[in-house]
Design brief:
By secondary structure, this protein is an alpha+beta fold. The protein has three domains: about 1-215, HUPs (Rossmann fold, 3-Layer(aba) Sandwich), CATH 3.40.50.620; about 240-315, Uridine Diphospho-n-acetylenolpyruvylglucosamine Reductase, domain 3 (2-Layer Sandwich), CATH 3.30.465.60; about 325-440, Phenylalanyl-tRNA Synthetase, Chain B, domain 3. The chain has helices at about 1-10, 30-40, 60-75, 90-110, 120-135, 140, 165-175, 190-205, 210-240, 245-250, 255-270, 280-290, 390-395, 400; strands spanning about 20-25, 45-55, 80-85, 115, 150, 155, 240, 245, 295-300, 305-310, 310-315, 325-330, 330-335, 340-345, 355, 365-370, 375, 385, 405-410, 415-420, 420-425, 435-440. Helix 2 packs across helix 7 (about 165-175), helix 5 packs across helix 9 and helix 9 crosses helix 11. It is elongated and about 95 Å long. The N and C termini lie far apart (about 65 Å).
């Protein structure tokens, strides 16, 4: 194994000037990796940093941290650790992975490391591919994970990708490398464990070297994905700008690129939480786009709202912080939609972003608020009232923007202006008497 790992390091040009941050849990895979890298540092004198995460869900976790730390002290390896004190969502494995890699990356930057090295092996690759085939994923997802990942200012290396769990464990026993056993790895309530215990043994009976076939499959899909990824980026730049998908331009794409564009947008929105998304969610977005409704929406995991509005589709992460508002308009107001209302002394413009009022015709003070069900206003130059909802539909205002669109009222609740869209009967011309001028920008 040592010789293969050395060849792997040479393949990716690891030199004596490099620092390697190694993710170590204390199990046979990661301890064997750390031991081999320590031994090979005699040939390539790079520096090593052991990164250990205490997931804080088992009673023995604290003891495992001490075990790894003591091993590092004995072998003169820098040891760094963190303890996850609290988990926020229901997907424990997903959140633990995110926190773990955030910690690893912080150490990469702290030590100016060139590489993050993990002990993912051939069995892990098989499990990942099989799980994603069953769950549904992208072409990239179906390929599992790579032995080398360019992260920009550093790279992730996985030297054990061509080895099986059994090979690694036998090496550890033969070379008297101590390790701990995480008993949760044997619990069938976890999906990955069921694949490990039930599916992989069956495949090995069919072919003892099946892990090599999976590695070849992974690399082949990776090559195809690289090509499609380049084409997807070209398509994405044409149909998706400023976080808005143009439906008319999207419909011009080839079917395969349509799917890949949606996956690419979801990757941007979900980033490290992409495991929450599957083929069903992609299908829902496609159905929304194809719907005859001009305005519609669906919800995805993590409070992501996909909103269709005429020829546009937006993905919005809902925070729930601003559902409605009402603000007294004195001199200036910064609005939740990112716009401003300001009382000015004079203004030459006369479009819908300017409102001129005579205080004798309205009841002060003025307020700005979100629209309410049944809101109506009497438009300038017309008789009768018109619903605010219908005005917004006529102006093709996206549904997500309607909820925060400002409505200016007087103290009696009469709508005197719909900023940026329509003026009411109370609006005055530049030549008429007025003592209030409001600018919307």
């Amino acid at each position: 194994m040592q010789e293969k790992v050395l060849a792997f390091l040479n393949k990716y040009h690891v030199t004596e000037e490099d620092c390697l941050v190694v993710g170590v849990s204390g199990g046979p895979d990661s301890l064997t990796l750390l031991a081999i890298l320590k031994e090979l540092s005699k040939k390539i004198p790079y520096s090593l940093v052991c990164a250990h995460v205490n997931h804080n869900v088992r009673k023995v976790s604290a003891k495992e941290k001490i075990f790894v730390e003591d091993w590092c002290k004995k072998h003169d390896i820098v040891f760094e650790s963190m303890t996850i004190e609290k988990y926020g969502d229901d997907n424990f494995h997903n959140e633990a992975r995110n926190l773990r890699y955030q910690f690893f990356e912080s150490l990469v930057h702290k030590y100016h490391a060139s590489y993050l090295v993990t002990a993912h092996h051939g069995d892990d690759l098989m499990e990942t591919i099989l799980m994603r085939i069953v769950r549904g994923s992208t072409l990239k997802g179906y390929s599992g994970f790579s032995e080398y990942v360019d992260m920009g200012d550093y790279a992730i290396l996985r030297p054990f990708i061509s080895f099986t769990k059994e090979e690694i464990t036998k090496y550890a026993v033969k070379n008297k490398i101590p390790y701990v056993i995480d008993k949760s790895n044997f619990k069938s309530k976890y999906t990955r464990n069921r694949y490990r215990k039930e599916v992989l043994p069956f495949l090995r009976k069919e072919d003892p070297l099946v892990h090599e076939k999976f590695l070849k499959f992974s690399r082949l899909l990776g090559e195809y994905n690289d090509f499609i990824d380049r084409e997807t980026k070209k398509a994405l730049s044409k149909v998706y700008q400023d976080n808005v998908l143009s439906i008319s331009k999207y419909e011009e794409l080839e079917p395969l690129l349509k799917t890949e564009v949606i996956h690419s947008i979801l990757e941007q929105v979900y980033q490290d939480d992409l495991m929450l998304i599957n083929d069903r969610h992609v299908s829902l977005i496609k159905e929304l786009i194809a719907s005859r409704k001009s305005n519609a929406f669906i919800y995805l995991p993590n409070e992501v709202k996909v909103v269709k509005s005429y020829d546009e589709v937006r993905l919005i992460v809902e925070t729930g912080e601003v559902a409605s508002y009402e603000i007294e308009l004195i001199d200036y107001a910064f609005l939740p939609n990112g716009k401003h209302l300001e009382l000015v002394n004079e203004c030459e413009e006369n479009d819908n972003n300017i409102c001129r009022l005579d205080s004798s015709e309205i009841s002060l003070p003025l307020y700005v608020r979100t629209r309410k069900h049944g809101d109506k206003m009497e438009l300038l130059g017309t008789k009768g009232h018109r619903k605010i909802k219908n005005i917004m539909i006529d102006k093709k205002i996206p549904m997500d923007e309607r909820e925060l669109w400002p409505v200016v009222i007087d103290s009696k609740g009469v709508i005197v202006w719909l900023p940026g869209l329509k003026k009411s009967k109370f609006n005055k011309t530049k030549q008429s008497k007025c003592d209030i001028i409001i600018k919307y920008y």
